[in-house]
Amino acid sequence: MIVATPGAGKTKFAARIVHALLRDRSIGRAIVVVPREHLKSQVALALAECGVRVDHKFANASGTLAADVHGAVVSYQQVAFAPHVYRALTRVPSLVVLDEIHHAADAATWGSALRTAFGGAQHRIALSGTPFRSDGLPIPFVQYEAGVSLADYGYDYAQALQDGVCRPLVFPLHGGVAEWISRDGRTMLASFETALESHAMEGERLRTALTQESWIGDVLMKAHTRLLELRAEGDRDCAGLVVAMNQDHARFIASLMKRRLGIEPTLVVSEDERASLKIKTFGRSRDPWIVAVHMVSEGVDIPRLRVGVYASNVNTEMYFRQFCGRFVRTQKSNPGDSAYVYLPDDPALGALASRIAVDVRTALRFKREFDELAAAQRTQTEASDALGEYASISASATESRTLDFGPLFDRERWLRAEPVVTDKRRTESAAIAENHSHHETIGDAKESLRKTVAVLVSRVSDKFNVDYKKVHATLNTRFGGPIATATIDGLSARAKTAQRWLVNNVYDGLR
Asked: Does 125 or 166 have the greater pLDDT score?
């Protein structure tokens, strides 16, 4: 179990271990499991850059892997659908990497499937930036002591800042006054500094601010101004992310940014079939803003993100820390510069931001050892009130305070003040001998070849009046079995044969 702060490079660590074990022939296969579909290609590309070929297009129906790949990247949902497929795959000496393992629970479907699929695997590495679940359920393959998960190795935010691995965070907290009709029918008017009688009312005040153009619009304007300043200072490609409460709220924010800021952000919602492509395209572009609900909160690697707006009413520690993790990744061009996360000065959210500072100060003052993250705050459930429904009326924003942790991490000043004991095992170079650069994964290359073969087979079928299934059967027989598990060479040979039939006007296959 490896627990490392979001943004510390868990994927690179996994790639290093996979490569080392394959190189030493300690394993013959690697299976990486990720929580979301759009992360599969990202992980596959990271492994490809290390010379490790994994198929992120693997389908359960295939049942087996092609001979020219080292393994596969799959989702927890895929494993849950067919755990026995993966149990069979890992009969070969295998390493299983369980990324963001906290998504699975022992008592739930995913956790049970993981134990069936990988309980017998030779090696397992579980990775997480937040090693707990909001529902309190235990996580498979994780050891616990007094209800707290135990890591074999931990690397927290303070350590990452000391090593220059992560950026320092600045939290501009915005207060203001909100007016709404509560569930019991009362008209409420309160600032974020006002103590309210219940968590339910605090939630109503927060949602009022987040849904009123006068409040969220002002915060978006300040965040965009900061982004423009960072670009003017030299980080010309830096970008911003807004996380919304739900899909309708995300669309509202995107529309508001177009009206107030004159920009059209990339909008990512789960019902959009092109969501994963949009995230990938945004990461490679110079576009300034992306608006999403949950899809960019965890695991997605967009190093150019430096400004965030937390426009969600989720106040669990796990979700908040995962969101903040999107902004702490460093870049070679400006590794030490701060990142900025704008959020409401809500009591719960302000406490979460302050707790990050407490963790850091504790680590600086004492042993610098990993301090287990606090248990996730459980979202308060608000029962419907028979007297009426909550409704927002208006809100206005003010910048009430800023939690700026940057001065804590003036590395040169900190090093002068106190000697550092370096853990050589942690800081030594993890360079991989056979490092290769790839612009696409083997899965992408195969998908392109399969499409080419499909087009050629269709043309052969039309030209020679042969059922296309028989053309495919001919190619499968000659070149090693089903197209789903074909190697790159096998797919290329299929394409060349079909082209030869068309050019020579001679078909010598099944009819």
From this structure: 125
- The gap between the terminal CA atoms of the chain, to the nearest Å, is 56
Name all domains of the chain by residue range, CATH numbers in brackets. Answer: 2-155 (3.40.50.10810), 160-405 (3.40.50.300), 442-504 (no CATH)
Q: Give the residue ranges of DSSP H helices in 178-246.
A: 199-211, 213-232
Torsion of CA 489, 493, 499, 500, to 10 degrees: 140
pTM of the model: 0.64
In this predicted model, what pLDDT tens digit does every residue of 305-340 receive, in sequence order?
999 999 999 888 878 888 888 888 776 655 557 889
CA atoms within 13 A on the CB side of 312: 26
The dihedrals phi and psi of 4, each to the nearest 5 degrees, come to -135, 140
For residue 175, give the H/E element and its range.
strand 169-181
Q: Which ranges of 35-167 would DSSP assign to H, the alpha helix?
A: 40-48, 76-81, 83-89, 109-118, 157-162
Q: How many CB atoms lie within 10 A of CB 500?
A: 12
Q: How confident is the model at residue 275 (pLDDT cuts 50, 70, 90)?
A: confident
Dihedral angle computed from the Cα positions of residues 31, 95, 156 and 367, in that order, rounded to the nearest 10 degrees: 170
One-letter identity of residue 338: S
DSSP state of 198: -
**Residue 245 · residue 210 · CB < 8 Å:** yes
E-strand stretches of 219-324: 239-243, 266-268, 289-292, 305-310
Residue 84, number of CB atoms within 10 A of its CB? 12
